[in-house]
């Protein structure tokens, strides 16, 4: 036990400011990565499409605003830790805004005039295509 | 020794990549989203076939467009001018003929000659109307309701004495395109595929060792109400009031106009039918969902029987579900459905 203490004391004596900095950066980085990536595999994603083009899939575990440029203007999508809505749209009817928040697998909001569709996807859906 | 490890790691990653059994392409055609998925083909074969299919979709979109430059618009213009349209194009003759038969079979609930009514309701635009049309205009158009049978087809000539005829094949084109896609894929030896044109879906073959599965949209929620398997060659079509519609004074006006009243049908939220494989099963799954949506409730079930529709599900205006027993056997609910809200036929 004394031996162990001695080793630790020797180690602390040897530590330089650079070592401390490295340890500090390591801890911060680990904490930061854990905070954004921890729920990633179980969590779900938001798929955004403009017409035929997939704009991308984004984790739902974040708070961001995405702006997508469609044929008639800019559609604004809010991702708010686990839930999503369209917050601004250039279309006349604003049906997409009235859909409100979605947060469950396979829920979809489509803005036909601006050709934007956003859907919540998981790692795997339980059907191949949607009849509507 | 180190190489062995490297190879093991490579194998691990490569098997991870080899998950791409399907190839999919999406596009925006016919005013809606079109999606073709091919299973278990080499990338070259699949890409080639998908390109051919999408070329055909683009051709049909231009060919049958109801309100932009197309052969349909040219025919409408000559009927309006009381001229005879001359063409050697056999395809348009067979399409018009088929539409004439379908109007008769559906007792006029499917009537593609009423383009003027659909236009008056504002559904001939990429952005729909925001207001009701003048009721005297609608009543007038309805009183002079044209019929497909009034179009005369004769050896390269198309004409009609009825100036009120305005062809609108919007309820036919997507189903027809499904059947065309089916033909093209088969000619190119693609045996396993799923074609989705604005929600009308046709399945070819299988998805690997299982059937293709499609979700059925809940007409009032942005999520599926159920899912169902599509056996090889089967197709599914839905007519609903939740994609093309507008709301004025809390009243919903959908694009599905009842020819008998001139007004949008409002007794249902959606009518979904499943159709077994025939040469024109894609077309029929698109066309036959309309009479089931539009017809009054007391006639829906006898109409389904008469048209040979064994698999159907209708969500009524009050949210209650009428479903055929054969459909109920196949369907898998994604929502909790109250038994009191289901009627089995």
Which features would summarize this protein structure in a list?
heterodimer, A: 132 residues, alpha+beta, mini-chromosome maintenance (MCM) complex, domain 2, 2 domains, four-stranded antiparallel β-sheet, three-stranded antiparallel β-sheet, 3 helices, elongated, B: 345 residues, T-fold, nine-stranded mixed β-sheet, 11 helices, globular
The level 1 CATH classification of the largest domain in chain B is: Alpha Beta
- Give me the strand/helix succession of chain A: HHEEEEEHEEE
- The secondary structure category of chain B is alpha+beta
Oligomeric state as shown: heterodimer
End-to-end separation of chain A in angstroms reads 72 Å
Determine Rg of chain A (CA atoms, Å).
23 Å
**Main beta sheet of chain A:** 4 strands, antiparallel
Helix content percent band of chain A: 25-40%
Strand order of the largest sheet of chain B: 1-2-6-7-10-13-14-15-17
Describe the structure.
The complex is a heterodimer of chains A (132) and B (345). Chain A has 132 residues and is α+β, with helices and mostly antiparallel strands. Chain A folds into 2 domains: 2-37; 45-121, Sandwich (mini-chromosome maintenance (MCM) complex, domain 2). Chain A has helices at 2-14, 17-37, 95-98; strands at 45-50, 53-59, 63-70, 73-80, 83-88, 108-111, 116-121, 129-131. A 4-stranded antiparallel beta sheet of chain A has the order 2-1-7-6, with no helix packed on it. In chain A, a hairpin with a 2-residue loop joins β4 (73-80) and β5. The longest helix of chain A has 21 residues, at 17-37. Chain A starts with a helix and ends with a strand. Chain B has 345 residues and is an alpha+beta fold. Chain B folds into 2 domains: 18-63 and 188-344, Roll (T-fold); 71-170, T-fold. In chain B, 36% of the residues lie in helices and 25% in strands. Chain B has 11 helices and 17 strands. Chain B has a 9-stranded mixed beta sheet with strand order 1-2-6-7-10-13-14-15-17. A 3-stranded antiparallel beta sheet of chain B has the order 3-5-4. A 3-stranded antiparallel beta sheet of chain B has the order 8-9-16, with no helix packed on it. The radius of gyration of chain B is 22 Å and the shape is globular. Classes of the chains: A alpha+beta (132), B alpha+beta (345). Chains A and B meet through β8 of A and β1, β2, β8 and β10 of B.
């Amino acid at each position: 036990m004394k031996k162990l203490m001695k080793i630790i004391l020797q180690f602390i004596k040897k530590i330089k400011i650079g070592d401390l900095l490295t340890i500090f950066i390591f801890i911060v980085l680990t904490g930061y990565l854990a905070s954004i990536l921890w729920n990633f595999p179980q969590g779900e994603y938001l798929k955004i499409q403009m017409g035929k083009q997939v704009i991308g899939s984004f984790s739902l575990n974040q708070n961001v605003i995405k702006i997508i440029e469609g044929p008639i203007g800019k559609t604004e999508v809010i991702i708010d830790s686990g839930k999503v809505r369209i917050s601004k749209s250039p279309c006349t009817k604003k049906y997409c805004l009235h859909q409100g928040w979605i947060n469950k697998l396979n829920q979809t909001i489509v803005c036909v005039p601006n050709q934007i569709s956003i859907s919540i996807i998981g790692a795997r859906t339980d059907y191949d295509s949607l009849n509507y | 020794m180190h190489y062995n490890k490297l190879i093991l790691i490579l194998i691990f990653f490569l098997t991870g990549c080899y998950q791409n059994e399907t190839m999919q392409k999406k596009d925006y055609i016919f005013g809606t989203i079109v999606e073709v998925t091919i299973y278990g083909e080499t990338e070259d074969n699949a890409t080639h076939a998908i390109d051919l299919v999408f070329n055909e979709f683009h051709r049909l979109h231009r060919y049958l467009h109801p309100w932009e430059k197309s052969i349909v618009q040219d025919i409408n213009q000559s009927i309006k001018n009381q001229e005879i349209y001359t063409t050697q194009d056999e395809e348009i003759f067979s399409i018009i003929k088929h539409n004439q038969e379908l109007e008769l079979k559906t007792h006029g609930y499917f009537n593609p000659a009423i383009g003027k009514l659909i236009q008056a309701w504002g559904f001939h635009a990429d952005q729909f109307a925001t207001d009701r049309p003048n009721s005297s205009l609608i009543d007038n158009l309805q009183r002079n309701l044209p019929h497909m049978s009034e179009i005369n087809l004769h050896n390269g000539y198309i004409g009609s004495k009825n100036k009120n005829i305005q062809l609108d094949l919007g309820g036919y084109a997507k189903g027809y395109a499904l059947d065309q896609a089916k033909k093209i894929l088969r000619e190119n030896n693609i045996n396993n595929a799923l074609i989705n044109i604005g929600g009308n879906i046709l399945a070819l073959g299988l998805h690997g060792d299982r059937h293709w599965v499609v979700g059925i949209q809940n007409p009032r929620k942005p999520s599926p109400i159920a899912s169902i398997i599509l056996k090889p060659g089967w197709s599914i079509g839905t007519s609903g009031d939740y994609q093309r519609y507008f709301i004025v004074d809390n009243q919903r006006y959908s694009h599905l106009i009842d020819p008998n009243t001139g007004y949008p049908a409002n007794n249902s939220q959606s009518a979904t039918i499943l159709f077994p494989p025939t040469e024109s099963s894609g077309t029929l799954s698109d066309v036959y969902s309309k009479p089931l949506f539009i017809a009054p409730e007391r006639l829906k079930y006898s109409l389904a029987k008469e048209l040979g529709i064994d698999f159907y599900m209708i969500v009524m205006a009050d949210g209650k579900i009428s479903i055929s027993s054969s459909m109920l056997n196949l369907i898998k609910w994604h929502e909790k459905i109250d038994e009191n809200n289901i009627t089995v036929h």
